[in-house]
TrEMBL record:
Chief place of localization: other
Name the record gives this protein: NADPH oxidase 4
Function: NADPH oxidase that catalyzes predominantly the reduction of oxygen to H2O2. Can also catalyze to a smaller extent, the reduction of oxygen to superoxide. May function as an oxygen sensor regulating the KCNK3/TASK-1 potassium channel and HIF1A activity. May regulate insulin signaling cascade. May play a role in apoptosis, bone resorption and lipolysaccharide-mediated activation of NFKB. May produce superoxide in the nucleus and play a role in regulating gene expression upon cell stimulation.
SUPFAM superfamilies the UniProt entry points to: Ferredoxin reductase-like, C-terminal NADP-linked domain (SSF52343), Riboflavin synthase domain-like (SSF63380)
Transmembrane segments: 42-66, 87-108, 137-160, 172-191
Localization (cell): Cell junction, Focal adhesion; Cell membrane; Cytoplasm; Endoplasmic reticulum membrane
Organism: Cardinalis cardinalis (Northern cardinal)
GO biological process: defense response; superoxide anion generation
Length: 565
């Protein structure tokens, strides 16, 4: 996909480059600026396209609507919606690359405007006189100054978007990324300067035409003594509309200029490109603000082993589907910052409670945990601890769609989780616990890989209840549970007699993915299996590669991956 998008942008760059390089309306401007004109305008066209589309993947409500309302009937097309984050990042990288080209071209243009000052067509110039300091064009004009500030904003956004910054200090990424609104406001001002002009009267003044007035003034010389003796008889130019024979005007080798060239600034096309997506995004943000303006009621907080916190809550008229996620905002933790968390429990017809599990790994989650729990050391307790207290205000925005909504729409699904990546599948398991017969899913392979034995206790009760329910309904083959303990010093078990069903499915080491795929393909010949993964990139890449590999059983694997947009 990234290759296709880059190829499309290069094609657009080339088409615009040829337009400005060969277009007659840019003849005089091209003579002054050279290739700097072509490169700056070609890169600007690419920037317009990407600045327009980069906002659309962030319209979460729109994406959730398209996914959930069956407006997009094709499963393959719905899977493309899950690439929204990838598309957003691709557009962002494209903006950075072509911004470098755009800036470099305009630096050359500023120098050419100063050195190649056109005294014949003054209106075509951006400089005020020949030899003017190019820095004045960069820092003393609206297009130049806004361009410099936009470069600084874009630099901050790009550097803060790197993986190292996002992992080490998410706050920096969050606050700098919200500078996009400043960037778009500056962009609208940047294109309103009208520095580059094109010729409007090509019919009356084709480039390179014969101008009798100018030619006579330039070639006819009068003796200086004659001018001093007879000042009234100095050289007069030809009248504006000379009487030239019609055949001469129509001569294919030379055309006569009927008037001087007229130049006009481009209408800021960028407004057409970005006004629609920007308004759509602003309307959606307003809708989301109104929808999430009422705080939820926290019913309970549970501290799980390995720094995991479970928050259960209720909210009026809240509906969600298994696999969706919400965005939590707690003003007492941060006035502006908010974070996405997958729903591990969805509201149903019989209960309104929904919940999330969050891993305490950063400043935001640490402060949030301290506000919810009475004692900061309770995360070390083995058994869940319910807290009865006055909780801080918590606002929930969502729910929003994710790939895991499709896990119930396959006849066979393979769900692979790594550590806390099990959360998207928890809501699916909870839904199956309430009733599985109404869904298309008839067999579920559930693979969960953890580093320590205590992590399995997050959802051990849920897995046991689902296992027992399916055995009572004589469908033990409905779900295949495999738990892998990747780091251990010896044989370990999940503590508790009620977890015997899980202990028998607990394996030491890492899954042998190739053998696992071959076994699943053999048991499900000529079927389409949905592969869902939420975990480390290393596991994700392996599963993606195996899903695209062919097998001798005619089984097709369709790969899906959790990706918060």
């Amino acid at each position: 996909f990234q290759f296709f998008w880059l190829s499309l942008n290069i094609w657009l760059f080339g088409k615009t480059f040829l337009l400005y390089n060969q277009g007659l309306q840019y003849y005089y401007l091209h003579q002054m600026l050279g290739l700097g004109l072509c490169i700056s305008r070609a890169s600007a066209s690419v920037l317009n396209l990407n600045c327009c589309l980069v906002l659309l993947p962030m319209c979460r409500v729109l994406l959730a609507f398209l996914r959930g309302s069956q407006k997009v009937a094709s499963k393959k097309t719905r899977r493309l919606l899950d690439k929204s984050k990838t598309f957003h990042v691709t557009c962002g990288v494209t903006i950075c690359i072509f911004s470098v080209l755009h800036v470099a071209a305009h630096l050359v243009n500023a120098l050419n405007f100063s050195e190649n000052y056109n005294e014949e067509f003054v209106t075509l110039n951006a400089a005020n006189y020949r030899g003017e300091d190019p820095r004045k064009l960069l820092f003393a004009t609206v297009p130049g100054l806004t361009g410099v500030i936009m470069v600084l904003v874009l630099f901050l956004m790009c550097t803060a978007s790197t993986y190292a910054i996002r992992v080490s200090n998410y706050d920096i990424f969050w606050y700098t990324h919200n500078l996009f609104f400043v960037f778009y406001m500056l962009l609208m001002l940047h294109v309103s300067g009208g520095v580059l002009k094109y010729q409007t009267n090509l019919e009356e003044h084709p480039p390179g035409c014969f101008n009798p007035n100018k030619t006579l003034r330039q070639n006819l010389t009068v003796p200086k003594d004659f001018e001093e003796l007879f000042p009234d008889y100095t050289t007069e130019p030809f009248p504006e509309d000379p009487s030239v024979p019609e055949p001469f005007v129509q001569n294919s080798f030379m055309r006569v200029c009927l008037e001087e060239p007229k130049f006009q600034s481009h209408f800021p096309e960028t407004w057409f490109w970005i006004s629609g997506p920007l308004c759509l995004y602003c309307v959606e943000r307003l809708y989301r603000y109104i929808r999430s303006n009422k705080p939820v009621t926290i019913t309970s907080v549970i501290s799980h082993p390995s720094n995991v916190l479970e928050v259960r809550m209720v909210k009026d008229d809240f509906e969600a589907r298994p696999g969706q996620y919400v965005i939590l905002h707690c003003p007492r933790v941060s006035a502006l910052e908010s974070h996405p968390f997958t729903l591990t429990m969805c509201p149903t017809d019989t209960k309104a409670t929904f919940g999330v599990h969050l891993k305490v790994v950063g400043d935001w989650t640490e402060r949030f945990r301290d506000l919810l729990l009475l004692h900061s050391n309770q995360d070390t307790e083995i058994l869940p601890i319910f807290q009865q207290r006055r909780y801080p205000k918590l606002y929930v925005d969502g729910p929003f769609g994710s790939p895991f909504e499709e896990s119930l729409n396959y006849e066979v699904s393979l769900c692979v989780a790594g550590g806390i990546g099990v959360t998207p599948f928890a809501s699916v398991l909870n839904t199956l616990l309430d009733g599985w017969k109404c869904y298309k899913l008839r067999r579920l392979y559930f693979i969960w890989v953890c580093r320590d034995i205590e992590s399995f206790r997050w959802f051990a009760d849920l897995l046991c209840m689902l296992h027992n329910k399916l055995w009572q309904e004589n469908r033990p083959d409905y779900i295949n549970i495999q738990l892998y303990l990747s780091q251990t010093d010896g044989i370990q078990k999940i503590i508790g007699e009620k977890y015997q069903a899980l202990n028998s499915r607990l394996l030491i080491g890492r899954p042998r993915w190739k053998l696992l795929f071959d076994d699943i393909a053999k048991c499900n010949r000529r079927k389409t299996i949905g592969v869902f993964c939420c975990g480390p990139n290393k596991i994700s890449k392996i599963l993606h590669k195996l899903s695209n590999s062919s097998n001798s059983y005619g089984t097709r694997f369709e790969y899906n991956k959790e990706s918060f947009s």
